[in-house]
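Task 17 of the worksheet. Students: predict the tertiary structure of the chain below and write it out as C-alpha coordinates. Keep your answer in the requested format; marks are given for formatting as well as content.
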Amino acid sequence: MCVGFCQSLGVDPVEPGADSDVQEHLDPPAVLGLETDSGQAPSGEDARDKIERLGRHAWSIVGIGLAAFLVLLVLRRLAWLVTPAVAVIILGVLAAPLVRLLVRRHIPRTPATLGVYVLMLGVLVGFGWLVGPAFVSQVGKLAIDVPDVAERLASRLDRLEDRMSDVSDTAGDAIGRFKASVTERSQELGENLADGIVGLLGSALGVATALLIGLVVSFLVVKDLPRLTAGTNRWLARPENMRVRGAARSMAADVTGYIRGQLLDAVIVGALKTLVLWLLGIPYFIPLGVLNGIANLVPGVGPVVAAVPPVLIAYSLGGWGWALLTLLALAAVQVADYYWFAPTIVGEVHRLPTLVVIVALIIGAGTAGLLGLIIAVPVAMAIRDGLHWAAIPDDQLDAEIERAEGKVRGRGRTERRMRHHSVSESSGGNGP
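Model answer:
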Protein backbone atom coordinates (compact mmCIF):
# COMPACT_ATOMS: atom_id res chain seq x y z
CA MET A 1 0.00 0.00 0.00
CA CYS A 2 2.88 2.33 0.79
CA VAL A 3 4.39 1.67 -2.65
CA GLY A 4 1.10 2.51 -4.33
CA PHE A 5 0.71 5.68 -2.29
CA CYS A 6 4.23 6.82 -3.21
CA GLN A 7 3.64 6.11 -6.88
CA SER A 8 0.36 8.04 -6.79
CA LEU A 9 2.39 11.09 -5.59
CA GLY A 10 4.95 10.65 -8.33
CA VAL A 11 7.69 9.58 -5.89
CA ASP A 12 9.66 6.37 -6.30
CA PRO A 13 9.67 4.38 -3.06
CA VAL A 14 13.05 3.75 -1.40
CA GLU A 15 13.67 0.12 -0.78
CA PRO A 16 15.35 -0.91 2.48
CA GLY A 17 19.10 -0.89 2.04
CA ALA A 18 18.88 1.04 -1.28
CA ASP A 19 21.58 3.62 -1.89
CA SER A 20 19.91 6.82 -3.03
CA ASP A 21 20.09 10.60 -2.61
CA VAL A 22 16.73 10.61 -0.83
CA GLN A 23 17.98 8.26 1.85
CA GLU A 24 21.10 10.38 2.31
CA HIS A 25 19.10 13.60 2.71
CA LEU A 26 16.71 11.96 5.15
CA ASP A 27 19.52 10.53 7.27
CA PRO A 28 19.02 12.04 10.79
CA PRO A 29 22.73 12.58 11.57
CA ALA A 30 23.20 14.43 8.28
CA VAL A 31 20.11 16.56 8.86
CA LEU A 32 21.24 17.48 12.40
CA GLY A 33 24.79 18.24 11.31
CA LEU A 34 26.32 15.50 13.47
CA GLU A 35 29.00 14.36 11.01
CA THR A 36 32.32 13.25 12.39
CA ASP A 37 35.68 14.89 11.67
CA SER A 38 36.20 12.56 8.70
CA GLY A 39 32.99 13.81 7.08
CA GLN A 40 31.13 10.56 7.68
CA ALA A 41 27.93 10.38 9.66
CA PRO A 42 28.50 8.80 13.11
CA SER A 43 26.93 5.58 14.23
CA GLY A 44 23.48 5.56 15.78
CA GLU A 45 24.86 5.44 19.35
CA ASP A 46 27.23 8.39 18.75
CA ALA A 47 24.42 10.44 17.22
CA ARG A 48 22.14 9.67 20.18
CA ASP A 49 24.92 10.61 22.64
CA LYS A 50 25.43 13.96 20.93
CA ILE A 51 21.70 14.64 20.85
CA GLU A 52 21.45 13.76 24.55
CA ARG A 53 24.32 16.14 25.38
CA LEU A 54 22.68 18.92 23.39
CA GLY A 55 19.41 18.27 25.21
CA ARG A 56 21.06 18.34 28.62
CA HIS A 57 22.82 21.58 27.70
CA ALA A 58 19.57 23.21 26.55
CA TRP A 59 17.59 22.09 29.59
CA SER A 60 20.37 23.21 31.94
CA ILE A 61 20.18 26.70 30.42
CA VAL A 62 16.42 26.72 30.96
CA GLY A 63 16.80 25.46 34.54
CA ILE A 64 19.52 27.96 35.44
CA GLY A 65 17.48 30.81 33.97
CA LEU A 66 14.40 29.75 35.93
CA ALA A 67 16.42 29.42 39.15
CA ALA A 68 17.98 32.86 38.66
CA PHE A 69 14.54 34.36 38.02
CA LEU A 70 13.14 32.79 41.21
CA VAL A 71 16.13 33.99 43.26
CA LEU A 72 15.74 37.55 41.97
CA LEU A 73 12.00 37.41 42.69
CA VAL A 74 12.66 36.31 46.28
CA LEU A 75 15.35 38.96 46.73
CA ARG A 76 12.96 41.68 45.58
CA ARG A 77 10.43 40.51 48.16
CA LEU A 78 13.04 40.23 50.91
CA ALA A 79 15.26 43.21 50.08
CA TRP A 80 15.75 44.04 53.77
CA LEU A 81 17.42 40.65 54.28
CA VAL A 82 19.97 41.04 51.49
CA THR A 83 22.65 42.86 53.50
CA PRO A 84 22.56 40.47 56.52
CA ALA A 85 22.51 37.49 54.12
CA VAL A 86 25.58 38.80 52.31
CA ALA A 87 27.31 39.31 55.68
CA VAL A 88 26.44 35.72 56.67
CA ILE A 89 27.85 34.33 53.42
CA ILE A 90 31.06 36.37 53.53
CA LEU A 91 31.78 35.65 57.19
CA GLY A 92 30.98 31.97 56.71
CA VAL A 93 33.25 31.71 53.66
CA LEU A 94 36.09 33.36 55.60
CA ALA A 95 35.62 31.28 58.75
CA ALA A 96 35.02 27.81 57.28
CA PRO A 97 38.64 27.07 56.18
CA LEU A 98 40.04 28.12 59.56
CA VAL A 99 37.51 25.95 61.38
CA ARG A 100 38.37 22.97 59.15
CA LEU A 101 42.07 23.51 59.87
CA LEU A 102 41.48 23.49 63.64
CA VAL A 103 39.23 20.43 63.43
CA ARG A 104 42.01 18.58 61.57
CA ARG A 105 44.22 19.47 64.55
CA HIS A 106 41.80 17.42 66.68
CA ILE A 107 40.09 20.43 68.26
CA PRO A 108 36.32 19.89 68.76
CA ARG A 109 34.23 21.76 66.22
CA THR A 110 32.33 23.97 68.67
CA PRO A 111 35.43 25.37 70.47
CA ALA A 112 37.19 25.72 67.11
CA THR A 113 34.30 27.70 65.63
CA LEU A 114 34.00 29.83 68.75
CA GLY A 115 37.72 30.64 68.68
CA VAL A 116 37.63 31.63 65.01
CA TYR A 117 34.64 33.93 65.48
CA VAL A 118 36.13 35.52 68.59
CA LEU A 119 39.22 36.25 66.50
CA MET A 120 37.11 37.74 63.69
CA LEU A 121 35.14 39.85 66.15
CA GLY A 122 38.39 41.06 67.70
CA VAL A 123 39.73 42.07 64.27
CA LEU A 124 36.53 44.00 63.47
CA VAL A 125 36.47 45.74 66.85
CA GLY A 126 40.17 46.56 66.67
CA PHE A 127 39.85 47.95 63.16
CA GLY A 128 36.86 50.04 64.21
CA TRP A 129 38.68 51.34 67.28
CA LEU A 130 41.79 52.31 65.30
CA VAL A 131 40.19 53.68 62.13
CA GLY A 132 36.57 54.38 63.09
CA PRO A 133 36.98 57.78 64.82
CA ALA A 134 39.23 59.18 62.06
CA PHE A 135 36.91 57.76 59.40
CA VAL A 136 33.79 59.36 60.93
CA SER A 137 35.63 62.66 61.47
CA GLN A 138 36.88 62.84 57.88
CA VAL A 139 33.50 61.85 56.45
CA GLY A 140 31.78 64.59 58.45
CA LYS A 141 34.41 67.13 57.40
CA LEU A 142 34.06 66.05 53.76
CA ALA A 143 30.29 66.49 53.90
CA ILE A 144 30.72 70.01 55.27
CA ASP A 145 33.54 70.96 52.89
CA VAL A 146 31.91 69.66 49.70
CA PRO A 147 30.41 73.05 48.72
CA ASP A 148 33.80 74.79 49.14
CA VAL A 149 35.61 72.05 47.22
CA ALA A 150 33.00 72.26 44.46
CA GLU A 151 33.34 76.05 44.32
CA ARG A 152 37.14 75.84 43.94
CA LEU A 153 36.74 73.12 41.33
CA ALA A 154 34.20 75.21 39.40
CA SER A 155 36.56 78.19 39.46
CA ARG A 156 39.39 76.13 37.99
CA LEU A 157 37.03 74.62 35.41
CA ASP A 158 35.96 78.15 34.40
CA ARG A 159 39.54 79.00 33.52
CA LEU A 160 40.01 75.69 31.77
CA GLU A 161 36.80 76.23 29.79
CA ASP A 162 38.04 79.63 28.58
CA ARG A 163 41.34 78.13 27.41
CA MET A 164 39.73 75.15 25.69
CA SER A 165 37.09 77.29 23.98
CA ASP A 166 39.90 79.09 22.15
CA VAL A 167 41.10 75.72 20.83
CA SER A 168 37.83 73.81 20.30
CA ASP A 169 34.24 74.85 20.88
CA THR A 170 33.25 71.20 21.44
CA ALA A 171 35.83 70.69 24.21
CA GLY A 172 34.82 73.97 25.83
CA ASP A 173 31.14 72.99 25.81
CA ALA A 174 31.94 69.59 27.34
CA ILE A 175 33.91 71.19 30.19
CA GLY A 176 31.11 73.70 30.70
CA ARG A 177 28.52 70.94 31.04
CA PHE A 178 30.75 69.08 33.48
CA LYS A 179 31.18 72.25 35.54
CA ALA A 180 27.42 72.84 35.61
CA SER A 181 26.86 69.25 36.77
CA VAL A 182 29.42 69.62 39.58
CA THR A 183 27.87 72.92 40.69
CA GLU A 184 24.36 71.48 40.67
CA ARG A 185 25.38 68.39 42.65
CA SER A 186 27.22 70.47 45.25
CA GLN A 187 24.23 72.78 45.70
CA GLU A 188 21.93 69.81 46.19
CA LEU A 189 24.31 68.32 48.74
CA GLY A 190 24.59 71.65 50.54
CA GLU A 191 20.83 72.01 50.76
CA ASN A 192 20.41 68.45 52.04
CA LEU A 193 23.54 68.33 54.18
CA ALA A 194 21.76 67.40 57.41
CA ASP A 195 19.73 64.70 55.68
CA GLY A 196 22.90 63.36 54.06
CA ILE A 197 24.74 63.08 57.39
CA VAL A 198 21.74 61.39 59.01
CA GLY A 199 21.48 59.01 56.07
CA LEU A 200 25.20 58.25 56.30
CA LEU A 201 24.94 57.49 60.00
CA GLY A 202 21.89 55.33 59.31
CA SER A 203 23.79 53.40 56.65
CA ALA A 204 26.73 52.88 59.01
CA LEU A 205 24.36 51.67 61.71
CA GLY A 206 22.69 49.32 59.22
CA VAL A 207 26.04 47.86 58.17
CA ALA A 208 27.06 47.38 61.82
CA THR A 209 23.75 45.66 62.57
CA ALA A 210 24.14 43.43 59.50
CA LEU A 211 27.65 42.46 60.61
CA LEU A 212 26.41 41.61 64.11
CA ILE A 213 23.56 39.49 62.73
CA GLY A 214 25.94 37.92 60.23
CA LEU A 215 28.40 36.98 62.99
CA VAL A 216 25.74 35.27 65.08
CA VAL A 217 23.97 33.44 62.22
CA SER A 218 27.13 32.40 60.38
CA PHE A 219 28.61 31.12 63.69
CA LEU A 220 25.59 28.84 64.12
CA VAL A 221 25.73 27.73 60.48
CA VAL A 222 29.47 26.98 60.46
CA LYS A 223 29.30 25.20 63.84
CA ASP A 224 26.53 22.84 62.66
CA LEU A 225 27.63 22.68 59.01
CA PRO A 226 28.32 18.90 58.90
CA ARG A 227 24.92 18.13 60.40
CA LEU A 228 23.12 20.67 58.21
CA THR A 229 24.66 19.28 55.02
CA ALA A 230 24.46 15.57 55.93
CA GLY A 231 21.11 15.02 54.17
CA THR A 232 22.20 16.94 51.09
CA ASN A 233 25.47 15.01 50.92
CA ARG A 234 23.62 11.68 51.12
CA TRP A 235 21.34 12.78 48.28
CA LEU A 236 24.30 13.94 46.18
CA ALA A 237 26.12 10.66 46.82
CA ARG A 238 23.50 8.69 44.87
CA PRO A 239 24.74 7.49 41.46
CA GLU A 240 21.89 9.19 39.61
CA ASN A 241 22.89 12.57 41.12
CA MET A 242 26.57 12.47 40.19
CA ARG A 243 26.24 15.30 37.71
CA VAL A 244 24.56 17.60 40.26
CA ARG A 245 27.15 16.58 42.84
CA GLY A 246 30.02 17.57 40.56
CA ALA A 247 28.40 20.89 39.67
CA ALA A 248 27.83 21.68 43.36
CA ARG A 249 31.45 20.85 44.23
CA SER A 250 32.82 22.99 41.40
CA MET A 251 30.56 25.93 42.27
CA ALA A 252 31.57 25.72 45.94
CA ALA A 253 35.29 25.66 45.15
CA ASP A 254 35.25 28.41 42.52
CA VAL A 255 32.85 30.83 44.19
CA THR A 256 34.27 30.58 47.72
CA GLY A 257 37.83 30.81 46.43
CA TYR A 258 36.95 33.87 44.38
CA ILE A 259 35.18 35.58 47.31
CA ARG A 260 38.07 35.00 49.72
CA GLY A 261 40.65 36.14 47.19
CA GLN A 262 38.72 39.25 46.16
CA LEU A 263 38.13 40.33 49.77
CA LEU A 264 41.81 39.98 50.68
CA ASP A 265 42.82 41.77 47.48
CA ALA A 266 40.37 44.61 48.19
CA VAL A 267 41.78 45.05 51.70
CA ILE A 268 45.35 45.23 50.37
CA VAL A 269 44.47 47.67 47.57
CA GLY A 270 42.38 49.85 49.90
CA ALA A 271 45.19 50.03 52.47
CA LEU A 272 47.81 50.88 49.82
CA LYS A 273 45.68 53.58 48.21
CA THR A 274 44.88 55.07 51.63
CA LEU A 275 48.63 55.22 52.33
CA VAL A 276 49.31 56.80 48.93
CA LEU A 277 46.65 59.48 49.41
CA TRP A 278 48.00 60.25 52.88
CA LEU A 279 51.57 60.60 51.54
CA LEU A 280 50.31 62.94 48.80
CA GLY A 281 48.56 65.11 51.38
CA ILE A 282 45.05 64.54 50.01
CA PRO A 283 42.45 65.39 52.67
CA TYR A 284 39.76 62.84 53.55
CA PHE A 285 42.25 60.08 52.62
CA ILE A 286 40.63 57.43 54.86
CA PRO A 287 37.10 57.49 53.35
CA LEU A 288 38.59 57.87 49.87
CA GLY A 289 40.86 54.88 50.47
CA VAL A 290 37.99 52.79 51.82
CA LEU A 291 35.96 53.75 48.75
CA ASN A 292 38.77 52.56 46.48
CA GLY A 293 39.07 49.29 48.38
CA ILE A 294 35.34 48.55 48.09
CA ALA A 295 35.33 49.58 44.42
CA ASN A 296 38.10 47.06 43.75
CA LEU A 297 35.49 44.33 44.28
CA VAL A 298 33.91 45.39 40.97
CA PRO A 299 36.25 44.18 38.19
CA GLY A 300 37.43 46.74 35.68
CA VAL A 301 34.92 49.53 36.26
CA GLY A 302 35.20 49.95 40.04
CA PRO A 303 38.80 51.23 40.33
CA VAL A 304 38.27 53.74 37.50
CA VAL A 305 35.14 55.23 39.08
CA ALA A 306 36.66 55.33 42.57
CA ALA A 307 39.73 57.24 41.31
CA VAL A 308 37.61 60.21 40.16
CA PRO A 309 36.84 61.81 43.60
CA PRO A 310 40.47 61.98 44.86
CA VAL A 311 41.71 63.29 41.50
CA LEU A 312 39.02 66.01 41.44
CA ILE A 313 39.81 66.99 45.04
CA ALA A 314 43.52 67.19 44.20
CA TYR A 315 42.73 69.31 41.13
CA SER A 316 40.53 71.70 43.13
CA LEU A 317 43.27 72.19 45.72
CA GLY A 318 46.48 72.16 43.70
CA GLY A 319 45.70 72.26 40.01
CA TRP A 320 46.83 69.95 37.22
CA GLY A 321 50.15 68.97 38.80
CA TRP A 322 48.64 67.60 41.99
CA ALA A 323 45.79 65.93 40.10
CA LEU A 324 48.16 64.22 37.65
CA LEU A 325 50.43 63.03 40.47
CA THR A 326 47.42 61.59 42.33
CA LEU A 327 46.18 59.85 39.20
CA LEU A 328 49.60 58.32 38.48
CA ALA A 329 50.00 57.11 42.08
CA LEU A 330 46.57 55.44 42.09
CA ALA A 331 47.25 53.94 38.66
CA ALA A 332 50.57 52.53 39.89
CA VAL A 333 48.83 50.73 42.76
CA GLN A 334 46.20 49.40 40.34
CA VAL A 335 48.83 48.15 37.90
CA ALA A 336 50.63 46.40 40.76
CA ASP A 337 47.34 44.81 41.76
CA TYR A 338 46.59 43.72 38.20
CA TYR A 339 49.99 42.13 37.54
CA TRP A 340 51.10 40.92 41.00
CA PHE A 341 48.54 41.02 43.84
CA ALA A 342 45.44 39.70 42.08
CA PRO A 343 47.19 36.84 40.19
CA THR A 344 48.87 35.76 43.44
CA ILE A 345 45.87 36.11 45.75
CA VAL A 346 42.86 35.48 43.51
CA GLY A 347 44.61 33.55 40.75
CA GLU A 348 42.77 32.56 37.58
CA VAL A 349 39.89 31.09 39.54
CA HIS A 350 37.11 32.74 37.54
CA ARG A 351 38.56 32.13 34.03
CA LEU A 352 35.73 34.08 32.43
CA PRO A 353 36.08 35.86 29.08
CA THR A 354 36.12 39.65 29.27
CA LEU A 355 32.88 39.93 27.30
CA VAL A 356 31.11 37.60 29.75
CA VAL A 357 32.35 39.69 32.71
CA ILE A 358 31.10 42.90 31.08
CA VAL A 359 27.66 41.41 30.33
CA ALA A 360 27.43 40.03 33.88
CA LEU A 361 28.30 43.44 35.36
CA ILE A 362 25.67 45.17 33.20
CA ILE A 363 22.98 42.68 34.21
CA GLY A 364 24.02 42.83 37.88
CA ALA A 365 23.99 46.63 37.97
CA GLY A 366 20.57 46.78 36.30
CA THR A 367 19.14 44.16 38.64
CA ALA A 368 20.57 44.94 42.09
CA GLY A 369 22.71 48.09 41.80
CA LEU A 370 26.02 48.06 43.69
CA LEU A 371 25.33 44.68 45.24
CA GLY A 372 24.62 43.29 41.78
CA LEU A 373 27.98 44.60 40.54
CA ILE A 374 29.77 42.86 43.41
CA ILE A 375 28.07 39.46 43.03
CA ALA A 376 27.85 39.48 39.21
CA VAL A 377 31.10 37.58 38.61
CA PRO A 378 30.46 34.84 41.25
CA VAL A 379 26.97 34.29 39.81
CA ALA A 380 28.41 34.08 36.28
CA MET A 381 30.99 31.56 37.54
CA ALA A 382 28.23 29.41 39.06
CA ILE A 383 26.28 29.49 35.78
CA ARG A 384 29.45 28.58 33.87
CA ASP A 385 30.03 25.58 36.13
CA GLY A 386 26.41 24.43 35.74
CA LEU A 387 26.65 24.52 31.95
CA HIS A 388 30.01 22.76 32.02
CA TRP A 389 28.69 19.86 34.06
CA ALA A 390 25.59 19.55 31.93
CA ALA A 391 27.75 18.93 28.86
CA ILE A 392 30.22 16.40 30.36
CA PRO A 393 29.87 12.92 28.80
CA ASP A 394 28.78 10.17 31.20
CA ASP A 395 32.03 8.22 30.85
CA GLN A 396 34.04 11.23 32.11
CA LEU A 397 31.93 12.03 35.18
CA ASP A 398 33.99 10.02 37.67
CA ALA A 399 37.27 11.76 36.79
CA GLU A 400 35.66 15.20 36.79
CA ILE A 401 34.02 14.60 40.19
CA GLU A 402 37.34 13.56 41.70
CA ARG A 403 38.90 16.76 40.40
CA ALA A 404 36.04 18.92 41.72
CA GLU A 405 36.11 17.33 45.18
CA GLY A 406 39.86 17.83 45.28
CA LYS A 407 39.32 21.54 44.67
CA VAL A 408 36.84 21.71 47.55
CA ARG A 409 39.20 19.93 49.95
CA GLY A 410 41.95 22.27 48.89
CA ARG A 411 45.58 21.59 48.21
CA GLY A 412 46.69 21.77 51.84
CA ARG A 413 46.63 18.01 52.47
CA THR A 414 48.31 17.24 49.14
CA GLU A 415 51.03 19.82 49.77
CA ARG A 416 51.71 18.37 53.20
CA ARG A 417 52.07 14.89 51.69
CA MET A 418 54.40 16.26 49.01
CA ARG A 419 56.56 18.03 51.60
CA HIS A 420 56.71 14.87 53.71
CA HIS A 421 57.65 12.83 50.63
CA SER A 422 60.42 15.26 49.66
CA VAL A 423 61.81 15.25 53.21
CA SER A 424 61.77 11.44 53.24
CA GLU A 425 63.64 11.33 49.92
CA SER A 426 66.25 13.85 51.09
CA SER A 427 66.90 11.77 54.19
CA GLY A 428 67.17 8.59 52.17
CA GLY A 429 63.83 7.28 53.35
CA ASN A 430 65.18 6.42 56.80
CA GLY A 431 63.10 7.58 59.68
CA PRO A 432 64.48 8.32 63.13
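Marker's comment: The radius of gyration is 30 Å. The CA atoms of residues 179 and 357 lie 33 Å apart.
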